[in-house]
Amino acid sequence: MSDVQGFPAFPTGSRRRRRTWWGSAWIQAMEDTAVDATLARRGRRIAAEGRIGPVTISPGRAAAVLDGAAPIVVAVEPLSADRWAHLAAEATVQSGHLAALLDGELPHALADLLPGIGELETQCGCDDWGNPCDHAAALCYQVAWLLDADPSLLLVLRGGSVETFGARPAGVSAADAFARPVRALPEPPPPVGDEPRPLVVAPPGIDASALADAATEAAARARELLANGAVDSSRGRP
């Protein structure tokens, strides 16, 4: 997972189509510390108006630009090593927790990824005194929409990654695979003497004896090729 992820601007008329408990918790952390509830409500409307540009998620912050000019930042403190260790222990106890997170669900056991009251800090290039102002509140709502769809973004916002949990991506890269030495082929099986004559059921019009002779000769050539790396070119010639 990259340390920085970008998302296109939400179009006009956007709204939350899926309400999750973790997206609601993110909004609650903002609304519970808002100086003016009216600004928060206005922020919800601005979030749906398409005035906020592309959103960038990076460790400790979400950022965007309002009306192509005013920068907006919503900051959240990265987790300490102790809190990451606690979350990693929770994920170890129940191996499905991390898989659920990467599959679009946030287990309650990993709720420490979410900010609490007072943990969200906002900045905006406007002159509004509110904390958050309606523009920063709008970005908070849009980040909640992104988290609704992909709660693993909380790993980035909190300064961690999948590897923080001690996990490693599955599979091997092509470069690593081609760099590995080629293993030697196993030794060919020992010869077994005369080739057994195969039991052949010939279709109508085909000489069963001749077909069995051809199959026996092919088997002998294949065994000779495995044993010697070549076939005697004179085999089968008069």
From TrEMBL:
Superkingdom in the source lineage: Bacteria
Residue ranges of every copy of the SWIM-type domain listed in the record: 109-144
The UniProt record lists the keyword Metal-binding: yes
Molecular-function GO term, any one: zinc ion binding
Keyword Zinc-finger among record annotations: yes
Entry keywords, A to Z: Metal-binding, Zinc, Zinc-finger
Coiled coil: none
Name of the protein described by the UniProt record: Putative Zn finger protein
Organism lineage string: Bacteria, Bacillati, Actinomycetota, Actinomycetes, Pseudonocardiales
